[in-house]
Structure formats: structure tokens, C-alpha cells
Amino acid sequence: MKRFLAFFLSFVIVFSSTTAAYAASSVGGWTAVDTVIAGATTTINATKTAGGKALKSAVAVAPSA
Fold it and tell me: What are residue 36's DSSP bridge partners?
């Protein structure tokens, strides 16, 4: 029983810290919805609600050559 409890608690500790890291994905009210990777370029799609209107935005991030 002690081994099972120790295994379960270690499992919860490992995966709860991973989930908490991804939970804070809102910056300035914008929430990242989707990321699309095409080669070295990453496109991040985000949404925000302002004044009852849903706003959408996409940002392409690419390394400088």
C-alpha cells in the first residue's frame, strides 16, 4: 500500500507541475489558442474578449537570418 501511495503521489507531483506551467498562457488578456509550426517559422493564434467582442490575432515568429 505504501508503494502504491508513493508512486501515486510522485505521479501527481510530476504531472501537476507540467500542467501548472501551461496554465498561465494568457498575456495582456490574450490567450494562445493554437500554434502552427512550418519549418523554422511558428505561427501563434490568439484570442481576446474586449467590450463583448471576440478579437482574433495571429503572429508569425521566425528566426533572423
Answer: 43
User: Distance of CA 33 to CAs 9, 22, 30, 39, Å?
Assistant: 31, 12, 9, 20
Q: Name every residue whose Cβ is closer than 8 Å to that of residue 34 and which is 6 or more positions away in sequence.
A: 44, 45
Check residue 4 and give its pLDDT: 85
**Cell numbers of 48, please?**
481576446
User: CA-CA distances (angstroms) from residue 63 to 11, 33, 34?
Assistant: 37, 22, 19
* CA nearest neighbour of 44 among 56, 27, 53, 32: 32
Question: What is the tens place of the pLDDT at every residue in 27-45?
Answer: 778 888 888 888 889 998 8
Distance CA 48, CA 65 (A): 32
